[in-house]
Each structure stands twice: as structure tokens, then as C-alpha cells.
Design goal:
The chain is α/β, with parallel strands linked by helices. The chain folds into four domains: about 150 residues, 3-Layer(aba) Sandwich (Rossmann fold); about 70 residues, Helicase, Ruva Protein, domain 3; about 90 residues, Zinc Finger, Delta Prime, domain 3 (Up-down Bundle), CATH 1.20.272; about 50 residues, no CATH class. Helix content is about 50%, strand content about 10%. The strands form two sheets. The protein has a five-stranded parallel β-sheet with strand order 2-3-4-1-5. Helix 5 runs parallel beside helix 6. The longest helix has 19 residues. It is flat. The N and C termini lie far apart (about 60 Å).
Length: about 400
């Protein structure tokens, strides 16, 4: 995108009637932002920066639609910074150099500081990330970035060290109700309460998606109204086919899998079934889920219920041979069984202890009495099989270690 623009360098872009409703409802001041007051309000980190008109580089991490881009825009505007927005996939080294030169000129000529905003920062390559390090380190521009992924896993460590990481929580019912109220005021349409609740069920705390569903349902309601009062019903909302992302992001993949495992570990069968369902409707490969269940059966159920491994193994076979949608039945059966089964990590802990000791004693020889049966060739050369009483099962000189106690199934 061009680095020079007309109009004030501080203003949030003007709203136009032809814009999508979500763009027209975008806050223009920090006081209009819905939620996140622990950061934006009085005494909050970002709010304090705005009051002092001195911004630090910030990484805004959170789910889609929680307001990351909006916060970046209004914070830069109210702090008096020039705002240069980019998406990571379109930000090359050339654009970074141009931004660096432009920011220096703005600072030297007008005394104006610059915010370089990078959306989807987790998509930056190492070359792109490295090109940002020097200008950020020297304060040529302030970097504000946004990501829907886990920043501790997906963002370059060198770049991450330059940020203050702000994790924005998913917004709740009150936030969605507030943005839908603003949508009604902007459009003059009325949304019935059942429709508002359905939008929340469809979109969760994603405000942008909530507005988009409202706008699409409004189109249907207008046709029915024929010029009269536009009332958006639950049926209008249900008629809207909400676009769902094709598959899980990398972070969601691990986070939902972790939620499933921890729910089973806590014997919370209902929560476990919910997270299994979330994984399936999001397009997760049933074979991956089945593999995780087989691991869980040995790791967490273990000797407390030996049948768990057999059920998990059968489920994995079903995932390989049946597939969706029928395999959901086998997966649900297995998740329910593993959740309710007694738990024991005794064998899991025992093998880990044994592996740790084995790694320290790799060079120790196998005792003579534990070696294989003497062969005919060895006998012909004079070697005899020892008939001595059994000795220690450990290498000579290594004290016996009790990794697993007999009867320990807890």
C-alpha cells in the first residue's frame, strides 16, 4: 500500500454509507471500544500510554473479532501517531525500508511519530522479521502487531522480545449485545431477542462475525418488510449461512486437543464430548483424534483398566477404515469410556524413570547370566551355560532401582 495518504495522518478513516456495516460501526475513539477495559481503561497499560502519548511496541493476541485492528487504529490516532497498516503477507523488505525512511522524515520534519501496524504477524518470514528488528530497536517507528495464533509459539523469538504482549480475552454475551444494539441504532432495524441470542450462539464473542450475520439477516428482513419497519427474526438469522473457516489454525489444533485430553483426565465426560465435537465440526482428522485417544489410554488410564487400550485401538482402526460421519460414534464411545475409566500413570511414570536411567548408563554391559543361551559353536569352543542362582537383573555395579512397585496401579 502507499505510504502517503491524503487528509490527517492521525484520523481514523472516515466512514462512508456504502461501506459494510462492520466498517461503519468501527470505533473511532478508545472510549468506544467494547471490552478489554483492564488494558484500555484508566490505569490500564494501553490507556496509560495513550494519556502520555508515548506508545511502546505492542503485540495484540486474541481470537478473531475481539478488536485487535480497531485498538491499534484508535490508539495510534489518540496518541497522535501516523498509522501505517499492513498485512504480513504483503509486507516485504522494500516496504519496511520505505516505512523506515518515511517515519524518520515525519519525525525530523514534523515531529510526528509513526505506528507500523502488522496484521497476522505470525505469517512473517524470518527475513521480514529480521528487517523489522533494527528500526523497532532504534525507535524509528513503533510496531503494533496482531495475531490469532499463540505468539509464544508462532512469532520469531527475536521479534517477540521487542513486544509487550497483550492477550485479549474472548468477549462475552454483554459485548455482543452491545455491538448488536449499535447495529440497530445505525440501521434503524429491530433485532428480536431470540435472534440476538442465536447470533451469539453462532459467533461466540467474534464481534465482526456478529455484525456480518446481523447485516445479512437484515437483508432478508428488508425484503419481507416491503418498506415498513424492518424486524429481524430468529428465522432470518437461521437463514444466514455463516462462513466457517476450513479447518483449525495451528494454535486451535493444539488448544482444542489439549482441552479434550485434560477433560478426559479430569473425568469430565460432558466437557470431553464437547471438545471432541468441536474438533470434528471444525474439520479435524478423526485419525489424529483416535491416535491421541490411544496414547491417552496407556498414559492416563494404564493399568487401572487394561481394557481401555483395546477400546482405543479398535477406535483407531475404525477411524482408518470407516471415516466420517459414522466414526463419530466410535470416537464418542471411546471418549466416554476413557473419561469415566479409573486413572493410573504408574506404568507411564515407570518407563520414563527407566529411560532416564538408561540414558545415563548406555555403556554398561549386559550381565553374563542375562545374555542369550549358549550356542553349539560356543559349547564346542569350551563355553558352558552357567547354572548359578539368578543374580540381579541390572548391570553389574548398578544398584537395583524400583521404577514400578508391585501392586501399584494408581
Amino acid at each position: 500500500m502507499a505510504l502517503n495518504s491524503s487528509g490527517s495522518i492521525f484520523d481514523v478513516p472516515a466512514k462512508r454509507p456504502e461501506q459494510p456495516l462492520a466498517a461503519r460501526l468501527r470505533p473511532t475513539r478508545i472510549s468506544e471500544v467494547i471490552g478489554h477495559q483492564q488494558y484500555l481503561g484508566e490505569g490500564g497499560l494501553i490507556g496509560a500510554m495513550v494519556q502520555l502519548k508515548r506508545l511502546s511496541s505492542i503485540l495484540l493476541s486474541g481470537a478473531p473479532g475481539v478488536g485487535k485492528t480497531t485498538i491499534a487504529q484508535v490508539v495510534a490516532s489518540e496518541a497522535g501517531y501516523k498509522f501505517l497498516p499492513f498485512v504480513a503477507t504483503s509486507l516485504g523488505v522494500k516496504e519496511i525500508k520505505e516505512a523506515q525512511v518515511g517515519a524518520l522524515n515525519a519525525l525530523q520534519v514534523m515531529g510526528t511519530r509513526t505506528v507500523l501496524f502488522v496484521d497476522e504477524v505470525h505469517r512473517l518470514t524470518k527475513v521480514q522479521s529480521d528487517a523489522l528488528l533494527q528500526p523497532v530497536e532504534e525507535g524509528v517507528f513503533t510496531l503494533i502487531a496482531a495475531t490469532t495464533e499463540n505468539p509464544w509459539m508462532e512469532v520469531s523469538p527475536a521479534l517477540l522480545s521487542r513486544f509487550l504482549v497483550v492477550e485479549l480475552s474472548v468477549l462475552g454475551r454483554e459485548a455482543v449485545a452491545e455491538v448488536l444494539e449499535r447495529a440497530q441504532q445505525e440501521t434503524g432495524c429491530v433485532l428480536k431477542s431470540a435472534g440476538a441470542e442465536l447470533i451469539y450462539e453462532l459467533c461466540g464473542g467474534d464481534l465482526r462475525s456478529s455484525i456480518n450475520v446481523f447485516e445479512a439477516a437484515m437483508t432478508l428482513a428488508k425484503i419481507r418488510a416491503r418498506g415498513g419497519q424492518v424486524e429481524i427474526s430468529e428465522e432470518d438469522v437461521r437463514s444466514v449461512k455463516r462462513t466457517v473457516s476450513n479447518g483449525l489454525s495451528r494454535s486451535e489444533h493444539y488448544e482444542m486437543t489439549s482441552a479434550l485430553i485434560k477433560s478426559m483426565r479430569g473425568s469430565d465426560v460432558n466437557a470431553a464430548l464437547y471438545w471432541l465435537a468441536r474438533l470434528l465440526v471444525s474439520g479435524e482428522d478423526p485419525r489424529f483424534i483416535a491416535r491421541r485417544l490411544l496414547i491417552f489410554a496407556s498414559e492416563d488410564v494404564g493399568l487401572a483398566d487394561a481394557e481401555a487400550v483395546s477400546i482405543a485401538h479398535a477406535t483407531m482402526h475404525a477411524a482408518e477404515t470407516i471415516g466420517m460421519p459414522e466414526v463419530r460414534i466410535s470416537l464418542g464411545h471411546c471418549v466416554s469410556y476413557l473419561s469415566m475409566a479409573p486413572k493410573s500413570r504408574a506404568s507411564y511414570d515407570a518407563i520414563d524413570k527407566a529411560l532416564k536411567l538408561a540414558g545415563k548408563t548406555l555403556g554398561w554391559s549386559v550381565p553374563q547370566h542375562l545374555r542369550g543361551v549358549v550356542s553349539e559353536i560356543e559349547v564346542s569352543r569350551g563355553k558352558t551355560q552357567s547354572d548359578a542362582d539368578p543374580q540381579s537383573g541390572f548391570p553389574k555395579g548398578l544398584a537395583e532401582v524400583e521404577f514400578f512397585k508391585p501392586g501399584d496401579r494408581n
